[in-house]
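[job 0412] stage=fold_complex status=start
inputs:
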Amino acid sequence: MIKNFDELLQLCRQKTDKKTAVIAAAQTESAIEAAVIAAAENLTKCLLVGDKAAIEAIIAEKFSAYNGCFEIIDTGADLQKACAVAVQTIHEGKAGLILKGKADTALLLKAVLDKEKGLSTGEVISDVFAYETPEKVVLLTDGGIVLYPDLKEKISLIKNAVKVAHSLGNPNPKVALLSAVEVVNPKMPCTLDAAIITKMNQRGQITGCVIDGPLALDNAIDIESAKIKGIDSPVAGHADILIAPNIEAANIFAKSLTYYAKYRVAHVVMGTKAPILIASRADAAEVKMLCLAMGIVCSG
Amino acid sequence: MIKNFDELLQLCRQKTDKKTAVIAAAQTESAIEAAVIAAAENLTKCLLVGDKAAIEAIIAEKFSAYNGCFEIIDTGADLQKACAVAVQTIHEGKAGLILKGKADTALLLKAVLDKEKGLSTGEVISDVFAYETPEKVVLLTDGGIVLYPDLKEKISLIKNAVKVAHSLGNPNPKVALLSAVEVVNPKMPCTLDAAIITKMNQRGQITGCVIDGPLALDNAIDIESAKIKGIDSPVAGHADILIAPNIEAANIFAKSLTYYAKYRVAHVVMGTKAPILIASRADAAEVKMLCLAMGIVCSG
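[job 0412] stage=fold_complex status=done
writing structure:
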């Protein structure tokens, strides 16, 4: 497993069969900035789908050094069409991951999940978030897409996150099912799900990872806390992946890592035929770069 | 409102009608350490209830400078009796807050909530957590007691936290009802509760604070994030109190502040006739000191 995000960038640059990133509705400064970062940082090529005239105008005004550097597929101003064409480029093998441009997340996901022309694999799609502590990179899910995962959905969240961990070089990540406590409590449904999923992993029904739960955050990430509580677990204190019980827990936690702990973060949507990056307009250039690297490493 | 925990300690030391803290089942090193901190830091007097011989033995062995310094009520080795007697000292006016000693939290709360002899006010009891950012002290609830608060319970959580904010010198705290998003979404029940509670506050049904929600954490605490989202709110960007939608969200968030952001924290249980401190054995001396100061400031 990569130890930090500098190693993520290195992993991305060294990837041999690197896929092109397609930007859906690229006629916005933020999206073109992502394409410029991908080029400048030697991450991958970008294919821009959208309003060609508008895209070229933004490049000329804001990123003139990149005039003529990007391949553009003109779909006019229609955002829905841009999303559909971007999805099509994945099917055609022209690109291996999708970046959100001017279209909002819901519109892009609609094209991605289209039953006939979309990229669904039948799996639940979920957002896998990564953060860089001074010691390691940890994955957290799902603070963005699945609201209140049931047992089956939690297993999908695990599979999607495990796939990311594998791509990041960890063949057997330790997965902690988070709760507020480390004991099974019939009044706390997520502790029951955690016990069940742990057993499924022991029985070989979920593979490619070692799962344990319920665990409180301190038991999951801090070996001293796990020892004080006397928790006998292959995961406690060493979790690589944290599965939150609900979207609020994951979302608030993720934001606390950004705003309070000041950690570097990245995230990627998994569960479709190609990773999807839904970084927001407000994201800093560094976040965009790290999301791109994560998406590229997880594609193909 | 106090700006940091040094001001909390100052507020505590300057309090004129300071209450004594009673320790329920004090025959454990961790509890006596709290009493020693209270004395050494000039916070308040402690009354030790429990196994007198065992208490004196611990003092003699570990804190010999404090031999004979504490008043002790002997209840023998019976933990339940120690909790009941500690509660009784509150009724008798001998003490104004309770510290957990050797008895576990459940046993102490059983005595506190006893219908005949307890300290119930009819209000829901909840844990109010405080953390110190570089800019301010923020309150968060409830990561410890109420599992999945319904609308009515959330109002109790707010009242308990607002009482703490008032004691900390903020007469009109800004309360944010946290969710993963800042929009009302019928599929996310906590966003509906947030909208309803906001309206109740506007109608004067919940007083002593300004409430707004739903808000995501970034919108609640970071004014730039609130501006980017175009949120028009008296609370956004300036929240003093954060109400989490469920115990997992609050608990994971609180632990992330301790383990990742490395913030100083404290917490106190409110909703009874006297504040209750349930700091754990594993808590560092500084956490115990800050919890004591918070409990003393919030008592009487």
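[job 0412] summary: The longest helix of chain B spans residues 151-167.
[job 0412] exit 0
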